[in-house]
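Subject: Protein entry, chain in single-letter code together with its fold tokens

Area: Proteins and the way their chains fold up in space.

Attached in line: The record itself begins immediately under this heading.
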Amino acid sequence: MKTDAELVRQALVGRAEAYADLVRRWAGRITALCHAKVGRADVADDLAQETLLRGYRALRSLSAPDKFGAWLCGIALRASLDWLKSKQRTQVPFSVLGAKYDPDGFHSTAPAADERMENYDERVSLLAQVEALPESYRQVVMLYYYDDLTYRDLAGMLGVSTATINARLTKARSMLRQRLEKTLSPHG
């Protein structure tokens, strides 16, 4: 498998499929990072696409091709911060309005089988609870589960120790368990 640096060099000399390989390699992490930052799945996909486009347009400015991943994550964070500062932040997500919101980005009005509906409702509830976590916990949960990263990968990406990653994931799971128990209990 080619390294990021090799793919960057190939993309810079006009081999478009090399950048497509980089997109496939990094899209999941970038989406997870954006989702963790803005707390909204519907916006994360758009921000990830914007990040990948900005990365492509600015590829010549990358002075260290072996640092492509960190560079692209920086672009994703800036795109997310730009979004958070914009007036779009005041828009209300469909989930708040009570619409049936699908975490995959599709809105469905067609009735589903009881079992599918229960799973769907559980996923929507879980996603809403993940999005409500404080950013440092939301970030590790999103990156860990979206892109199946190891603790070591997460630690390197976020600039913290693997013990910190473990502590954040443990705390996030505990918070989610407590929140979901409250929403599922008949008195909650």
User: Anything to note?
Assistant: Residues 4-89 form a domain with the Rna Polymerase Sigma Factor; Chain: A fold (CATH 1.10.1740.10). Residues 91-113 have pLDDT under 50 and may be disordered. The chain has two domains: 4-89, 93-184. The chain has nine helices and no strands.
